[in-house]
Amino acid sequence: MKIILGADHGGWRMKEEIKRWLKNEGHEVLDRGAFEKDDNDDYVDFAVLVAKELEKNSKAKGILFCRNGFGMVIAANRFSWVRCGLGFDKGAVERGRMDDDINCLAIPADYVDLKKVKEMIGVFLKTKFSEEERYKRRLDKLRHLSLQDDFDFFEKIRKSGRQIDGVSYIRKMRDSR
After folding, report:
1. What residue ranges do the domains of the chain occupy?
2. Residues near 122 by beta carbon (within 8 Å), at least 6 away in sequence
3. What confidence tens digit (pLDDT) does each residue in 20-30 have?
4. How sure is the predictor about 44, in pLDDT bands with cuts at 50, 70 and 90?
5. pTM to 2 decimals?
């Protein structure tokens, strides 16, 4: 499996450890930086580089590292094809893969040790999306949401009570504008 890594100054050291481990496990690893500690770098730049690689390869997985993970999650999720979750516990990572089909994992390097990170990444790479209809429906809504920033539009959907056929309603409303 192709794995794309990115880290800012707060996560680069852990990224380097994980990169060696992943290669030893037989994974194809693409490192998008940082390649040294630079306190003036910005997490956003590395999240963008990983997101662009995920756009090129829908089967790849991204792993981002920074001090608390939140900045990477925020930046990566700006891209409609990225579903980035925060890795703090292997059970949560498993649910993120099964329910939300996350394709990118942000690691809060200041708050988790290397052993725990390896466990979370192992779960992230092995767990499959459940394919349950309710989760597929939610992901479809997210894909359409990324095309739409009109909150009134989505309030109409909520008020309609049309959960099961929400995506069709979204398309109908969007097309009628």
Report:
1. 2-126, 133-175
2. 90
3. 999 999 999 99
4. very high
5. 0.82
